[in-house]
Amino acid sequence: MKTVNIHEAKTQLSKLVEAVSRGESFVIAKAGKPVAKVTAFSAPTGAQMRRLGFMAGQISVPEDFDQMGRDEIAQIFGGGV
Question: What is the CATH number of domain 2-38?
Answer without folding.
Answer: 3.40.1620
